[in-house]
Q: What sequence folds into this?
């Protein structure tokens, strides 16, 4: 077949070819030998050239078709991508927690997210219908604020943040923080606004401020309370000092009532003591708003019919009535109903209840723990003060009585011993006259014995009187203490005792004694008594040995008088210092039982002490302290 005749077949086949391969297949099937076969003549060559042109055109078409397909696919892919992006953007845009809107100057909105529409109270449908216009929704006083922000945003090309208000669909004003960003949409400038609702923040701030204010007020109130309480406590401390000095129980109660009333302003405070079948009002403080009530209380309440007095007295514990029931104190009459709250306390001294203190308030208010503590403290202090007053009163009474009886005793001892000496002397001298007159009474042994008894009796009496007089003189005729050379005083005391020392063969050694501050006569008396006793109460089996030693310790001189006599059992170590107390019969050891009483009195008058130590059989040691002499 000639090339020319195949051209139409080729053209048809090529027109159907949709790819380069199909072009080649069409060529191969329509023109066996292809385009490169030798041309048989010019006609055939021309036909081959046409065929080549057809093939080329077919290839170009196929290529163009392929390119168009690729382009279409790409476009579709791009479109899908764009839609996905848009969908993502829309999702993000709508779900943003802040309101976002893009708007034009005329107030129309290009876009608005859900948060923005919610903020202003519109639905998306309303927005789409063009019902939302940001300019219209802005109150006029913020218009300029908006334009100014927009100008700055466009001028700087940056976001501007500012606060404004918009009107909610309901008319409510909504405080907002706007971040405005300029954007160009074609030739037109569009403002994109990020809008944050400031209401929760403002409300929180307001709440916070309110809370702060409330706290401040609470603090102020606490402060005031504290100040009041401090003041009350100060007053309390002041009055407590008075309580410490005062002795009259009713004055003390009155003071405590003053404290109670000052701590509970507007209250009244009454104090009752039992008197027969009545509670007798002994003291009251505070202003009675109902004078009749005071008159009724003054006439006494019936015991057993006044609950808030009866109960604390019986139970010995405080009784609080946050809401006072007037019916429980019937005997007070109706006027007591002005009292709305009461607290009653038993007042006792020691275990003994003596009365009841009642605090009544004119307003009804529950007692706070702090108030209870305050009142209980007041009553506690009152009780302490009452006890102290009672004790110190009793002590003072006893001391006074003792002083008085002591003084009387001394006066008596002095007068008696002094005055007794006179009749005694006359008894003695008349007895002697009798002896003289009846020539010794040798012929009448009975009469001689009577006379001897008289003489012994008068002698003993004289000794007794003498000792009592000495005892009384220790305090009746005191001389101011002066520096004493103790050694020299001891020497004179020994001189006075010379006779008995010689008679008993006693060995008395006085070691170096420090000087003391004392009444010289009394010091001599003291040493004489102690050394005299040391010799007198000697042991029958051994000659008496007495040692007097002394040393200064600080401002005191300690002197010991030690003997080897009969000793003193420990149960008598105190008793021997009592007047007329003796451990032996007179015929065994003579004496009056006054010597050690005088000795102790002398030492104590000088501020020192006198005591004995002894194991009861191997002698005794008398210890004493006297003030050391000051140079
Ligand atoms: P008096 O010596 O006149 O009896 P005192 O008051 O001097 O009275 O002494 C009281 C009692 O203390 C004495 O009766 C005696 O029993 C006892 N006594 C005093 N000194 C001594 C002593 N040194 N040794 C033993 N007993 C003593």
A:
């Amino acid at each position: 077949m000639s090339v020319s005749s195949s051209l139409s077949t080729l053209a048809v086949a090529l027109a159907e070819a949709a790819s380069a391969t199909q072009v080649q297949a069409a060529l191969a099937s329509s023109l066996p030998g292809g385009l490169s076969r030798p041309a048989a003549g010019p006609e055939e060559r021309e036909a081959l050239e046409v065929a080549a042109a057809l093939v080329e055109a077919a290839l170009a078409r196929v290529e163009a078709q392929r390119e168009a397909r690729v382009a279409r696919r790409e476009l579709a892919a791009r479109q899908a991508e764009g839609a996905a992006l848009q969908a993502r953007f829309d999702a993000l845009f709508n779900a943003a927690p802040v309101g976002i809107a893009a708007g034009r100057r005329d107030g129309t909105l290009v876009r608005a997210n859900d948060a923005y529409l919610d903020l202003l109270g519109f639905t998306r449908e309303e927005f789409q219908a063009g019902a939302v216009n940001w300019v219209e929704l802005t109150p006029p006083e913020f218009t300029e604020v908006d334009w100014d922000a927009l100008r700055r945003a466009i001028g700087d090309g940056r976001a501007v943040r500012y606060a404004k208000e918009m009107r909610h669909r309901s008319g409510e004003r909504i405080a907002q923080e706007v971040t405005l960003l300029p954007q160009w949409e074609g030739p037109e400038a569009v403002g994109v606004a990020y809008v944050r609702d400031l209401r929760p923040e403002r409300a929180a701030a307001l709440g916070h401020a309110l809370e702060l204010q409330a706290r401040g007020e609470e603090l102020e109130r606490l402060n005031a309370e504290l100040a009041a309480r401090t003041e009350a406590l100060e007053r309390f401390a002041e009055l407590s000092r008075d309580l410490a000095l005062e002795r009259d129980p009713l004055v003390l109660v009155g003071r405590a009532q003053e404290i109670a009333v000052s701590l509970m302003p507007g209250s009244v405070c009454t104090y009752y003591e039992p008197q027969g079948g009545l509670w007798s009002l002994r003291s009251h403080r505070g202003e009675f708003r109902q004078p009749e009530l005071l008159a009724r209380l003054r006439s006494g309440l019936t015991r057993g019919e006044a609950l808030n007095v009866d109960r604390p007295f019986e139970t010995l514990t405080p009784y609080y009535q946050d809401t006072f029931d007037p019916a429980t104190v019937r005997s007070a009459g109706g006027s007591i109903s002005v009292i709305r709250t009461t607290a009653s306390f038993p007042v006792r001294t020691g275990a003994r209840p003596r009365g009841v203190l009642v605090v009544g308030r004119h307003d009804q208010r529950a007692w706070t723990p702090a108030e209870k503590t305050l009142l209980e403290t007041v009553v506690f202090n009152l009780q302490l003060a009452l006890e102290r007053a009672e004790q110190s009163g009793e002590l003072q009474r006893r001391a006074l009585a003792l002083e008085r009886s002591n003084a009387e005793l001394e006066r008596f001892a002095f007068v008696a011993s002094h005055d007794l000496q006179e009749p005694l002397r006359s008894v003695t001298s008349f007895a002697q006259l009798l002896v003289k007159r009846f020539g010794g009474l040798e012929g009448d042994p009975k009469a001689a014995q009577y006379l001897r008894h008289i003489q012994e009796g008068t002698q003993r009496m004289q000794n007794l009187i003498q000792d009592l007089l000495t005892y009384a003189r220790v305090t009746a005729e005191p001389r101011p203490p002066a520096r004493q050379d103790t050694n020299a005083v001891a020497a004179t005391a020994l001189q006075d005792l010379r006779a008995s020392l010689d008679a008993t063969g006693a060995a008395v050694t006085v070691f170096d004694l420090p000087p003391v501050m004392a009444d010289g006569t009394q010091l001599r008396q003291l040493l004489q008594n102690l050394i005299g006793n040391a010799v007198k109460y000697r042991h029958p089996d051994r000659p008496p040995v007495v040692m007097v030693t002394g040393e200064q310790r600080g401002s005191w001189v300690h002197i010991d008088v030690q003997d080897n006599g009969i000793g003193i059992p420990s149960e008598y170590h105190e008793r021997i210092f009592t007047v007329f107390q003796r451990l032996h019969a007179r015929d065994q050891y003579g004496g009056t039982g006054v010597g050690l009483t005088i000795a102790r009195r002398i030492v104590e008058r000088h501020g020192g002490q006198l005591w004995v130590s002894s194991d009861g059989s191997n002698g005794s040691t008398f210890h004493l302290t006297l003030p050391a002499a000051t140079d």
Summary: The CA atoms of residues 102 and 192 lie 4 Å apart. The longest strand covers residues 173-185. Residues 369-437 form the longest helix (69 residues).
